[in-house]
Specification:
7% strand; GDSL; two-stranded antiparallel sheet; GDSL esterase/lipase At5g45910-like; five-stranded parallel β-sheet; 7 strands; alpha/beta; 39% helix; globular; Rossmann fold; 368 residues; single chain
Length: 368
């Protein structure tokens, strides 16, 4: 299986460096997830009357206007699309009658959870959900769209064999919602089996629908996130990693989730030997940035948010990025953290290049 993963990423690297006339390995990409990969669904859903991600400074770096992405520019999924010379994935909720989605679609929604919304309402925290568009809802959207992409079983099989499916990153919000209302590490760990099961069940459903090439990313090191560093700051120096200043317990929890997810994916591989199920490690490259920010060009660091309303990590829940009282930095490229919760385009670029190249430092020359 290690060799299989190596060959997959070697192929990604090869395709990213070939000339534009080379045949595409994949003809479409379908993405499921949350705000780490949402390209506009949350904004289009009207979940909030005036969502700040629909205003500058969001989108200022690359697109020069807000797109519904929770960053200053491109996301990991955007760089993946570029690597295969495919269009940026249109948000599913932008679907209009007669519009073609033959090169794929993005079903991710900011705030989405792996588990269904009912779970959070049962836990009495449903009122704080950003959206009810959980992973199962997104899978249902794909099923509806599929009928417009292919008709016969053979046609669908041929089409989906040439498609790449990203199932996540997702699951982070399942823990965020619980943590932000006072949940402790022990309570969060107790929910990991449920979150992992939701992710693997969704992956299984996609395989049953015909997907054969799937990437399932793990979670980022949340202990290095400005929002966690602010909300869970501790007077005990021993709670922090002396190498980077991240919260050790939170990062250990993220690693626990990732390890459980990897074990579950191995069982899926045994169940579906014909499918290529790849675990994508977002944790390691993000952690490298926090260990040596200057080495990777982050002269302003990796823990402090570029856009925020002050505080030790420039994250203020009452003056979050885009709200009154907040301000964006002059050069987001020197920051890894964008708004305290999400990363900058520069950080996403590095993680994407690590994924695509299956190496630690080499960047595909065709990606910018």
């Amino acid at each position: 299986m290690i060799m299989k993963a190596f060959l997959f990423f070697a192929l990604l690297c090869f395709l990213a460096s070939t000339v534009s006339t080379s045949p595409l390995r994949y003809e479409a990409i379908f993405n499921f997830g949350d705000s780490l990969s949402d390209t506009g669904n949350f904004l289009l859903s009207g979940a909030l009357s005036f969502p700040v991600i629909g205003k500058l400074p969001y989108g200022e770096t690359f697109f020069r206007h807000p797109t519904g992405r929770c960053s200053d520019g491109r996301l990991i999924i955007d760089f993946v699309a570029e690597a295969f010379r495919l269009p940026y994935l249109p948000p599913y909720l932008a679907l209009k009658k007669g519009q073609a989605f033959e090169h794929g679609a993005n079903f991710a929604v900011a705030g989405a959870t792996a588990m269904d919304a009912e779970y959070f309402y049962e836990k009495k925290i449903g009122a704080i959900l950003w959206t009810n568009s959980s992973l199962n809802v997104q899978i249902d959207w794909f099923k509806k769209l599929k009928s417009s992409l292919c008709t016969s079983k053979q046609e669908c099989d041929n089409y989906l064999k040439k498609s790449l499916f990203f199932v996540g990153e997702i699951g982070g919000n399942d823990y965020n919602y619980a943590a932000f209302v006072g949940g402790n590490i022990k309570q969060l760990r107790a929910s990991v089996p449920l979150v992992v099961e939701a992710i693997t069940n969704a992956t299984s459903l996609l395989i049953e629908e015909g997907a054969v090439e799937l990437v399932v990313p793990g979670n980022l090191p949340i202990g290095c996130s400005a929002v966690y560093l602010t909300l869970f700051q501790s007077p005990n120096k021993g709670d922090y990693d002396p190498r980077n200043g991240c919260l050790k317990a939170m990062n250990a929890f993220a690693k626990y989730h990732n390890n459980q997810l990897k074990k579950a994916l191995q069982k899926l591989r045994e169940k579906y030997p014909h499918a290529n199920i790849i675990y994508a490690d977002y944790y390691a490259p993000a952690k490298r940035l926090s260990h040596a920010p200057l080495h990777y060009g982050f002269s302003s660091g990796t823990l402090t948010a570029c856009c925020g309303g002050g505080g030790p990590y420039n994250f203020n829940n009452s003056a979050r990025c885009g709200h009154i009282g907040s301000k964006a930095c002059e050069d987001p490229n020197t920051y890894a953290n964008w708004d305290g919760i999400h990363l900058t385009e520069a950080a996403y670029r590095y993680i994407a290049h690590s994924l695509i190249n299956a190496s630690f430092n080499v960047t595909p020359s065709s990606l910018t």
